[in-house]
Every structure is written in C-alpha cells, then in structure tokens.
Fold these 2 entries.
Entry 1:
Amino acid sequence: MQNQNDQPLTPGNILRTGLAFWNSKTLLTAVEFEVFTVLGDEKMTGEELGAALGIHPRGISDFFDGLVAMGFLERDGNGDQALYYNTEETGTFLDKNKETYLGGFLEMANARLYRFWGDLGEALKTGKPQNEIKKTGKPMFEVLYEDVPRLEQFMGAMRGISMGNFVAFAEKFDFSNYSSLCDIGGATGLLASQVAKRHENVACKTFDLPVVEPIARKWVAKEGLEDRVEVVSGDFFKDGLPKADVITMGMILHDWNLEDKKHLIRLAYESLPEGGAFCVIENLIDDDRRENVFGLMMSLNMLIEFGDAFDFSAADFESWCREAGFTRFEVIPLAGPCSAAIAYK
Ligand SMILES: C[S@@+](CC[C@H](N)C(=O)[O-])C[C@H]1O[C@@H](n2cnc3c(N)ncnc32)[C@H](O)[C@@H]1O
C-alpha cells in the first residue's frame, strides 16, 4: 500500500498518537518523582536511583530505560552497573535546584489536566468544562484564589511555560517609540520584568487581581526590580486598565469567551494613546487551522478548563481588533508554537 506521495502506507502516526499518553505519563511521573532533581549533576545505577525514589524493583529498568529511549535520560553502559544521568535538556529544565526549572507546568498537568482530559468526550458532547468545577461548582480561577499555596504553584507553572516567549517578546518587539508598558493578567510580573531588564526607557507595570499582588511583589523583589516594575491590582471585568503606550496580555484572551475577549480588546483600546500597541502573546492557531497542533490542543484545553473559552488565529484577532478601532496589525513569532499578535491604535 502506498500513500499519495508514493511512500509505503503505515499506521505509525495513528499508533504513535493513540498511545502517546504512555510516553506523556512516564515523563510526567518522572517529574512528579523528581527523577531529574535527585540525579542533579550525578550519575547513579538503576538500583541507587530506584532506592532514592522509592520505586519497586519491577519498575526500575523499564521506567529509567524508557526515559533513556525517549531522550530524557542518558545511560553509560548496560545491565545492573549501568549509570543513569540527566541529558543537557533535563539537567537544565527539569532539575528543581536550577533557576531554569520549568517543570511547574508539567507538575500542574500531571496533578490536574491528565485526569480532566480523561473526560474530553464529555466536554465535546456537552461543551462544559471538566475541571474542579464538576466537584465544587466554582470556576477554576475562583478555586485557585481560595488556596494561596495552590495559586503560587499555578503562577510558578505559568512562569515556566511563559519564560521563553516573554524573553523573545522583550527582545524582538521594537520599544524605541514607547515609554510605558502595562502587562494585564501579569501573574508574577514576569513579562514586565523581562521588558524592564532590557529597556531602561520603558516604565513597566504588572496588573492582576489583588490576591496575586503579594506573589507578584515577591517575584519582582527576587529579580531586584522593585524600582523598575510597579505592581498594580484590579479586576479587568470591574475596573478600567492603567494607561500605557503598550498594553500586553500573555495567555489572557484565550481564557475567555468571545464577548469577554471583545470586552478586553475594547479596554486595551481605551487605555492606549494614538499609535499605541496592544500585544497579545498566545499559541496563535494558523489562519487555515491545519498546522499549529499545540495551538489547537491548547484550545481543547480551554474547553476542558472553561467550556466556552477558546484559542484563535491572527485573522480572528485582527477582525475583533478592527471592530474596536485598531488599524494596523503585525505578528511576531516567539518561542516554539507561540507568537505575539500586535494591533496598533
Ligand atoms: C493564564 S494566566 C496568564 C499569566 C501570564 N500572563 C502568563 O502568560 O504567564 C491568567 C492570569 O489572568 C489573571 N486574571 C484572571 N482574571 C482576572 C481579572 N478579572 N482581572 C485581572 N486579572 C485576572 C489571573 O490571575 C492570571 O494571573
């Protein structure tokens, strides 16, 4: 059997994707058990590493060798005396003792999303969210805000997933015509901090709900940027936004339905001066909705989390922003599947 390109027809993609949860759960469990943190910069035998993590002997070689085969661990030698150690990637991004740790999002995915995605079928048939709301009746953010340690874990997770994109945005966007920025839904103040570090002429604010303010202050202080990043509290469904030359929203619009998205776009328009820039940083779906798998899966994740919330394309963003009065548009690719879509007033 041949496919349209005269290549042999195989079910490889079907099987790889159908069983991708095996690989995913193996990596997520390794993060949960802190395999990469326990290894740090050391090399250990399977027996030593298994004992340190409390793993039953039956699981040791399958678990660690599976991680080797997937490229998440290195191994010197074969058999019982073989030594396991971190790859450059896992040693950098999945060792909790490193500043560069970004496993927070994977911890959250393992603790929450893995189970909620088990109900994808129900979400597709009902259009209803499948997260904590099913047990508590409360939307995700409300549940998070009731439990500060959990909120801090979520904010840490957001930092990990957003870092590369915010650094790329701070480096690629042309700030030369602007002297102020306000990041809306700024969480730990990460975006404002990355811009403040690179652009001395830009006065930066981070805006989020009052419950997030102490968390943002802590992170801004950790970066030594108390004098450069102002932490402002408010609710974007009750208050206006602070005025600034550049208004940014990182992974905010995708959390809401169309009516709320348009409300946020109108607020941004009102806060900007003529020539000001409204920048959203999102996993923009390609306009034909054929290629950005991550953006499309993120949109299904918004169904799981919120029901009527969804991700969108640059063309969608442009049409909503034109309605609000914006006139010029641009897309800047950031890290991986993420981009900045920019609307100029
Ligand atoms: C998905 S997180 C994005 C965090 C950050 N911008 C990033 O991309 O890493 C959404 C943020 O919106 C904030 N948020 C939710 N509802 C809000 C509201 N009504 N007013 C202000 N901020 C809100 C949350 O507290 C949270 O920090």
Entry 2:
Amino acid sequence: MKDLARIYVKAGDGGRGKLSFRHEKFAAKGGPDGGDGGKGGDVILSADRNIDSLIEFNYQKNFVAKNGEAGGAKKMHGEDREDLIVKVPVGTVVWEIPQEFVEADLRQREVFDKLLSTRREMVDMSEHNKKFVVAYGGKGGRGNWQFRSSTNQTPMEFELGIVGEEKQLLLELKVVADVGIIGLPNVGKSSLLKALTRANPKIAGYPFTTLEPNLGVAKRNEANLILVDVPGVVEEAWEGKGIGPWFMRHLERTTTLVHVLSPSEQVLADSSFKTKDLSEQLIHDYEIVRKELEKYGQGLSQKREIVVVNKMELVDAKKREAINKAMKSKLGKGVVWISAASNETEPLLAELWT
Ligand SMILES: Nc1nc2c(ncn2[C@@H]2O[C@H](COP(=O)(O)OP(=O)(O)OP(=O)(O)O)[C@@H](O)[C@H]2O)c(=O)[nH]1
Ligand SMILES: [Mg+2]
C-alpha cells in the first residue's frame, strides 16, 4: 500500500481587470466600462472512503486549477473558475513541505528527520467527505469602471488579479483500523491477518516479508473490525536500523494491539528444551517490542493489548500450561494461544469482541 506521496498544488490566479472605454458615436472616449476579472479556482482536497492508497499520485503529481477569466469591455465580469477537487483516502494527513524536500530521498534517515522538523501540518482528512481548501484561488482584479469618480471620468487604473496560492505537499496515509497486529519479524502476523479476514497478504518463512501495511476486515455477529498488519518491529528500530519505525504511524489510530509472539526455532530445535527456556524467550521478545512502542510514543504503549502466542501446535499442552503461568506472573496478564496457519484463532476472536 502506498502511504506517502508528494504533490504540487496551484490555485488559479484572479483574472485581470479590463481597461476600456465605451465607444460612442460622437465622442472619442466614452465613460469607463472595463469589467472585473473572475476568481481563480481553489484546489480542494476531499476525503473519499472508496480510495485506499495514495497510488494515484504516482501518476499525477501536479494539480493546477484554472485562472480566472479576464474582465471584458461593457463591464463584462470575467468568469470565476471551477475549483479543482483532489480526492484522497480517508486518513490522509496533509503537510506543507519546503521546496528542498520535493525530490529528496525520504528513505534517508537524516532527510526524514529534517523533514519532520520543518513540515507544517495542514489538515487531517479523517472522515469521509471532509473537504479542505488547500490552496485559495486569487480574486479577480477590478476593471477601470470601478475606479470612476466625480473627479476622474477617464480612469486609467485597473488591477491584475491576485495570484493563486501554490504549495508543495506531503500526503501521509495513516490507515484507519481498529486493531493493529504487531510483533517481531516472522512470528506470523500476516498469517494471522489472513486467518481472521479475507485479506491475502504475502507470507513467507523469512523476516521482513511485509514492507507495507496490509488491511483486512474481520466479521463476527454482524460486527466488523478493521485489522492492520504491519512490518516486523526490530530492536533499535528508532535508531533507523532495519526498515525504520515509520510504519508505526499506522498503529496510531487503532484502539487495540494484538501483540504476536512465537516460539523461536532455536529453542524448539532442541527437543529437550525446558519450558523455562521458552517462556524466557517469549518474554524477552515481548519486551523488545514494548520498548519500541514506548520509544515511538504517540500513545501506542497505552493502547489495549492482547498478547497471543502463535504456532501453538509446536508446543504441547502441558508445556503451554507451564508457560502460561510464568508469563502471567511476569506480564501481569494472560496470553492467548493460537495457530494462524491452521486457523485456530477462536480464543483471540472472543477477546477481540469483548
Ligand atoms: N507452524 C506454524 N507456522 C506458522 C504459523 N503461522 C505462521 N507460520 C509460519 O511463519 C512464517 C512467517 O509467517 P508470516 O505470516 O509471514 O510472518 P510475519 O510476522 O508477517 O513476518 P514479517 O512480515 O516478515 O514480519 C511463515 O513461514 C508461516 O507459514 C502457525 O500457526 N504455525
Ligand atoms: Mg508479515
């Protein structure tokens, strides 16, 4: 899903006012009759729930509204121009950015940091049909007819229209979802999304399979929940290692996090592994992700969290019981065992809908 885009918007200039005098049969110069220019079109953003990514902005990056028509003779008012509507997905945050970032490589950590400190938030297009004038069209100039007075019957003044606003924008899509699925790489986050929804994300037995968020809708008793599956969290994500923490913004609007853990292959490879080894590994993994959530801020670590251990079929019931106990005393809450691969997710569904 494309979640960042840069576009240029330019509202229309106001039309120029007209300098003109009436043509009369017996007078060289009749009274002034130059009309006013029309208004330039605005550029208006409109949130639309039928769009789910910023992909369209790969193809069109410049949005220029029409200039107002010039005024005419005989006091003819130039035509006001239509506004230019730019549709964006619901959940798009719009930032004005300095010129220097228009072509800059945003994947570079220093560039992004600098951008964060100089960009200016204009609007959060948080609801369907929300409209926002992002660039105002210029007012038309007055024609010379408007400048007539008792002392000046032949005014030569007229105005140019006001120039329409122009801006460089960064569009950032923060998905709107109820539930975020997080965890270390390869624990089965995308598999879980697939098990709970009709989404069909890429799943593979290596880390960083998911590079952009995947969305799905889970249904139960007529009630829908929107889930978002994000890339794996890595230790020190905040220091810019791995793919960086930028994807975490997609969790900001959720109310619940499903924190997925899974028994590590190293521990399982030893057939005589102790439950203690496994619970320690799970707790260790848990804490890595919690630390990153806290560092990211934005309220992520305060959200309701359901802790699940995936790949349950790899651990027998007796061991699961012992691990439950150890984890409960450490985390202060129970964990839910599931198997995303074999669609055993019922206890999680029950938790999600309470
Ligand atoms: N045994 C077992 N394997 C599973 C289960 N769920 C997922 N897997 C496997 O775990 C591997 C990783 O699954 P993904 O769903 O891609 O994991 P992810 O957390 O989305 O990974 P990233 O996107 O790379 O962070 C795949 O090989 C899956 O087939 C499960 O319940 N049991
Ligand atoms: Mg994944």
